[in-house]
Amino acid sequence: SFPQGIQFSPDGTCLLTAKANRLELYNTPYDDDDDENDDGDNGNKESNEQHRVKNKDDKDVWEPVITCAAGETVRAYTWYPHMKSSDPATCCFAAVSRDSPVHLYDAYDGSIRASYCPYNGLDEMESPTTLCFVENGTKLVTGGLRTDRLLHIFDINRPGRDHVPPTLKLGKTRRSKDGQKGLVSAMAYSEHRGVIAIGTYSPGSIYLYDLRTYSKSAVAEVIIVCVVGHGQRGKKNNNNKRKRFNNPNDPSSGVAAGVDNSSPSMNFSAAKRSWFQTRTRGGVTQVEFDDGENGMAGGGDGHYLFSTSRRSNAILQWDLRKLSSSNYCPGIARFEVDNDTNQRIEFQIHGDQIWTGGRDGCVRVYSYRTSTSETTKQLISDMNDESNGDEDHNNSSDIGMKKSLLAVAIGTRHFPSENDWDSEEPHTSLTNRTND
């Protein structure tokens, strides 16, 4: 097994990752400055010091403090947004695995504090594929049911199957042509705007929903705008497209004589929109707002949305300053990554910087305000040389709140080749190779 993504806790004291069917929590490397800057009692600080890395060059002493076993493969996990080690009540995280409800885990002992059970229209409990905390951490949104196009919203103080009414509905029925289609694969919430971004697999799309307007109706369909994907086609857009090729000398065309309606700028805008559209067709794997989380200086106000997709060598930046259901949400920048793979390659937004990994084992840092690359660091070339030549991907990178620690998750699934088969005992050789 290998780490699938990695996340610093909001206070920067812990790291959370998933490995197959378990969650592992690590304490960050011990720093003498932490004793001077510690503004509270950690509660279990003395018991956890033995698990901290005393020597940063020693790779063998860093062990998980807590391991939480899940029934099946972990699908998604996220920290409680106001987590502080000095306040045990806030030390928790939410996670969901296959064929299991959403669990809220205690970050001190790994116990389950509460469970939230999404039920579909057949009155069957179904595990979602993604989740996130919203509205200042008071509610938990889950999505990605295979039977219903719904988003279930739970009050974290009310565990069980009772979700907060109303349910966000992505379409009238599972097979209807209205609304957002596809399996929900990613979501992100903006505290500044009060909207949630939902990304889907096949067909890939990104929609924005306003969670502040759903309290008056039993079933809410509060789409603000379709950022990208299906839903962009309509009569207005088709009419505009036809007008560019109308004859200016034809009175019925509605175009004044002497006006060149097929200018290079308009053609370039259409080509640019088409390019951004095609980069999401493989399925959206992650969306993030520039909300300036974790107290990072230079963070934005939710004016931009960032997304990445399967087999797409770019992180896309979308401009949300002029939201309208009748206008396109323009893509304004792209940031190169080595992401031509079906594996989820995650990125993180910190301040005005984008931190991302890639197949080549590099950590890339971009400044989205200037659309320039600040640095590219090769990290795992030596590790690949020590692992029988197998190339592992840097599938996630995250930086701590103090910007002094960089966490990197390295690993990818390797499949046996013909040379790994033993003609006498093929099953045993294949099993051993897969387990390695």
From TrEMBL:
Basic residues biased stretches: 233-245
Basic and acidic residues bias (residue ranges): 42-56
InterPro entries hit by this protein: SWT21/TCAB1_mRNA_Telomere, WD40/YVTN_repeat-like_dom_sf, WD40_repeat_dom_sf
Any coiled-coil regions, as ranges: none
Region of interest (Disordered), residue spans: 27-56, 233-263, 374-400, 415-436
Top-level taxon: Eukaryota
Biased composition (Acidic residues): 30-41
Gene3D superfamilies documented for this protein: YVTN repeat-like/Quinoprotein amine dehydrogenase
Official protein name in the record: WD40 repeat-like protein
Protein source organism: Fragilariopsis cylindrus CCMP1102
